[in-house]
Write a structure and sequence with these properties.
7-stranded mixed β-sheet, 383 residues, mainly beta
């Protein structure tokens, strides 16, 4: 009886002691700093409590009591309350890093848009055990943004999802359906006006020189690719000659791109232009919708391009690839490959048809290769 009673006392003693002992575990974290600069070793350099809405470099520097090869540190970034009332306890990012060094640094990357003003918090976990929260705030005025143009190119094909150029050239066949000028815009405030002016410099049109032939503009914000184009009218071709595209921001000239239009036979081959994906919009397959986004229930995704001055005996390969499925089951999966031997100047037409089931949702690619050399890669998405 005494043994049983003693055992009961021991169980009660352990039950009371365990929570106290657990609460007294050594804190694995010595210090936490929100900062805009860190040293190469991760030590905080510029510690802040309040960040501007346009802050681009935001770090959480965590000093560990001792490094560990087996442990990890996790942080969660939260908007606790935004002043506009749009966000409350809203997670905007999280990351886990091994605890192998004395300082562990987490960086938060702001999107193109400004951070909402209000109160924020970083929650810190060690081996999935919550340790502490560190508050900070976003307030004040953002610096006036200045739009910067970069990576301006002339091209024949666009990524239909992002708008970025798929090729780069300064010589175009005169039977091109369209000629594109693409530029990357960064740091633009809302409503910034970007304009393109197209000029025919000289060429086969006698008596016509330095004539402006087209002007177009668009409003942009933040960071994005902007494209402008000119197309030939009716069944006409572009006049052969020298051209220029001038890019402007709010009527101030920023970029000047020169290009030529020539006879198709003068294009250095092999040359692939006008790559695009599309969907048929009627049963007779006479009308198409040029797009880079397709429903998973679509029956057929079409692809077209045009090849110029291909040497005889060239092997053409059109590959359809599921780059990454949303469910993470497929990655870099070859769905279909069509091969043919081509030469000269010829259209390239291909199609990916759905089977009995819906197409997996995710990111896809269609690539054009000639004699094993990749010529064009066009991304598209099934959603």
């Amino acid at each position: 009886m005494r043994i049983a009673r003693l055992a009961t006392y021991l169980v009660l003693f352990v039950a009371i002691l365990l929570p106290v002992w657990a609460g007294c575990q050594a804190n694995p974290i010595e210090a936490v700093s929100i900062c805009t600069e860190v040293t190469k070793d991760g030590e905080p350099k510029t510690v802040v409590n309040t960040l501007a809405p346009d802050a681009s470099d935001i770090y959480c520097s965590i000093k560990l009591a001792s490094p560990s090869e087996k442990s990890n540190v996790k942080v969660e970034w939260y908007i606790i309350n935004s002043e506009d009332g749009q966000y409350t306890d809203y997670m905007i990012g999280n990351e886990t890093i091994p605890a192998r060094t004395r300082y562990v640094v987490f960086g938060f990357v702001r999107s193109d848009r400004l951070l909402p003003t209000g109160s924020y918090q970083v929650k810190i976990y060690y081996d999935n055990r919550y340790i502490q929260s560190v508050p900070f705030s976003v307030g004040g005025e953002a610096a006036a943004p200045t739009a910067i143009l970069s990576d301006a190119v002339m091209c024949t094909s666009l990524d239909l999802i992002t708008g970025r150029p798929l090729d780069k050239t300064d010589i175009f066949p005169n039977d091109s359906a369209a000629i594109y000028c693409v530029v990357k815009v960064t740091g633009a405030s809302f409503g910034t006006n970007v304009k393109a002016r197209w000029t025919y410099i000289d060429g086969e049109l006698e008596g016509i020189k330095n004539k402006d032939i087209h002007t177009a503009s668009t409003r942009v914000e933040g960071r994005e690719y902007v494209s402008f184009s000119i197309g030939r009218s009716g069944g006409n071709t572009f006049p052969n000659g020298n051209y220029e595209a001038v890019l402007m921001v709010e009527d101030t000239e920023k970029e000047r791109l020169k290009f030529r239009v020539v006879e198709p036979s003068a294009i250095p081959g092999p040359f692939v232009s006008e790559a695009m994906t599309f969907a048929y919009t009627d049963e007779e397959k006479t009308k198409i919708d040029i797009t880079g986004k397709f429903a998973s229930t679509i029956k057929e995704i079409g692809f077209s391009a045009r090849a110029y001055n291909v040497p005889p005996g060239t092997e053409l390969a059109v590959r359809w690839i599921l780059k990454r499925s949303d469910d993470a089951i497929y990655a870099d999966y070859l769905l279909k490959e069509d091969k043919a031997v081509i030469e000269g100047t010829t259209p390239i037409i291909a199609a990916l048809k759905r089977g009995d089931n819906d197409m997996p949702k995710g990111d896809y690619l269609v690539t054009i290769a000639m004699n094993g050399s990749e010529m064009v890669t066009l991304p598209f998405r099934v959603q």
